[in-house]
């Protein structure tokens, strides 16, 4: 198999669903902008060099429908020959897309591909516009369709994850994110155009553009302050808006090129994908997924958690993140886990998240002069996914 390398990896800011700065910016506009910018920011690379786009999206319907991977390639101004596909593995869609893009290059089916993800939860809210569970199966297997918030309550209840610990973890995530924003440490973020429609005197609307430079959900909070929030999913529960990931809009991409193309075009390899894996778990406690995916991907790579310099563990909920940290005995590595905060502060734009965390992982590896980084998340429906990247 050929060698393949990431030669570019960037993201837009993440903005709150409905209340945030991207609430009138369509998903195609977010993803086509970041795809076009990724090519422009890669010396010696032009759109004509791109073969294919693999795009993750958790709810590929309505404004995110009609094979967004292909539509986005066209809206980015790429030539007709650039093909595109849309990939759905819910919260791991963006990581799956990067892995599939890698595989195409390593197998020799493509030379240069884009792997990325986008989610506009403002335009397509969870769980989509028209969820239609199978009536008989849903009656006999309701666990397959429980809300993610209830799965977080289940993890907290079954594995004794206290409200206090969750709120402390959440406050820490917010503090790290605010520090990183205030010190310009999110080097993977690209200032991104957003739009708003402004009503004119004659009743018509004009489309106005403005730039977004920062994640807009960061909110410094004390554990005490978070302790006052009402449960969001279950009366008497412990999962709140303060210790849950935010629902968010965002996009992110990585460009993958073969060694041959890197040599021929003078593209600078940033990193490579060492291993990627997924594994199933109980649907009604899907948050435990990384507890199984991380050991599996480490074994595939012949590495240990001690070899990791950066650990990007998606914070779908504090309860599940804490469960995974405890079960995997990651406490000694807390200084490597989500060093600039996680989804509780920065948001979890579902299908984008895997690509977003890849860009963050590579930027953080560069910052700490590290070699190996792991990206992992739980996945709605009952899965865990994990990837190991090696910085070059
Ligand atoms: C939990 C959830 C329902 C909250 O959504 P929301 O109500 O729109 O959230 P908000 O940001 O408006 O916060 C709700 C309240 O908590 C407060 N709050 C939220 N975060 C806070 C913080 N960090 N500090 C202090 N207060 C906070 C808000 O001020 C708001 O209070 P208000 O109602 O008095 O204005 C939503 O974020 C969610 O569904 N998250 C999980 C998403 C998910 O399942 N993803 C997939 C995972 S696999």
**In terms of per-residue confidence, which ranges show pLDDT below 50 for 5 or more consecutive residues?**
none
CATH topology-level name of the domain at 136-184 and 273-391: Peroxisomal Thiolase, Chain A, domain 1
Shape: globular
Q: What is the overall number of helices?
A: 12
Q: What top-tier CATH class of the domain at 136-184 and 273-391 fits best?
A: Alpha Beta
- Total strands: 12
Task: Summarize the main sheet.
Answer: 6 strands, mixed
Small molecules in complex? coenzyme A
- The portion of residues forming beta strands comes to 15-25%
Structural class: alpha/beta
> Can you tell me the CATH architecture of the domain at 136-184 and 273-391?
3-Layer(aba) Sandwich
Helix content: 25-40%
- For the record, what is the CATH homologous superfamily label of the domain at 136-184 and 273-391? Thiolase/Chalcone synthase
Q: Give the termini distance in whole angstroms.
A: 19 Å
Mean pLDDT: 98
What is the gyration radius calculated from CA atoms? 20 Å
SSE arrangement, N to C:
EEHEHEHEHHHEEHEHEHEHHHEE
């Amino acid at each position: 198999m050929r060698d393949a390398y990431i030669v570019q990896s960037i993201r837009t800011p993440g903005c709150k669903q409905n209340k945030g700065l991207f609430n009138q910016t369509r998903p195609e506009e977010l993803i086509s902008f970041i795809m076009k910018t990724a090519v422009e920011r890669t010396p010696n690379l032009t759109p004509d060099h791109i073969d294919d786009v693999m795009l993750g999206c958790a709810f590929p319907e309505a404004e995110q429908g009609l094979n967004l991977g292909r539509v986005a390639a066209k809206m980015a101004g790429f030539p007709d020959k650039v093909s595109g596909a849309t990939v759905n593995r819910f919260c791991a869609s963006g990581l799956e897309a990067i892995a599939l893009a890698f595989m195409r290059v390593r197998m020799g089916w493509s030379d240069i591909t884009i792997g990325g993800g986008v989610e506009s939860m403002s335009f397509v809210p969870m769980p989509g516009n028209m969820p239609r569970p199978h009536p008989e199966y849903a009656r006999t297997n309701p666990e397959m369709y429980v809300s993610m918030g209830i799965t977080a309550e289940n993890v907290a209840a079954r594995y004794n994850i206290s409200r206090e610990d969750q709120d402390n973890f959440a406050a820490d995530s917010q503090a790290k994110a605010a520090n990183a924003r205030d010190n310009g440490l999110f080097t993977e973020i690209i200032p991104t155009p957003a739009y708003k429609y402004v009503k004119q005197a004659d009743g018509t609307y004009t489309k106005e553009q403005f730039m977004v430079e920062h994640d807009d959900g960061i909110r410094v909070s004390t554990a005490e302050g978070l302790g006052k929030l009402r449960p969001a999913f279950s009366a008497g529960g412990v999962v709140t808006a303060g210790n849950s990931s935010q629902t968010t809009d965002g996009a992110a991409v990585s460009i993958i090129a073969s060694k041959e193309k890197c040599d021929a075009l003078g593209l600078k390899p940033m990193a490579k994908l060492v291993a990627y894996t997924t594994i199933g778990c109980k649907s009604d406690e899907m948050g435990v997924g990384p507890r199984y995916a991380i050991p599996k991907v480490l074994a595939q790579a012949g590495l240990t958690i001690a070899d990791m310099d950066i650990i990007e563990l998606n914070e779908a909920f504090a309860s599940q993140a804490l469960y995974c940290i405890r079960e995997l005995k990651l406490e000694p590595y807390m200084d490597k886990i989500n060093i600039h905060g996680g989804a509780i502060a920065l948001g979890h734009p579902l299908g984008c998240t895997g690509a977003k965390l890849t860009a963050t992982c590579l930027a953080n590896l560069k910052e700490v002069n590290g070699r190996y980084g792991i990206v992992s998340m739980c996945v709605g429906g009952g899965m865990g996914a994990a990837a190991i990247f090696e910085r070059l």
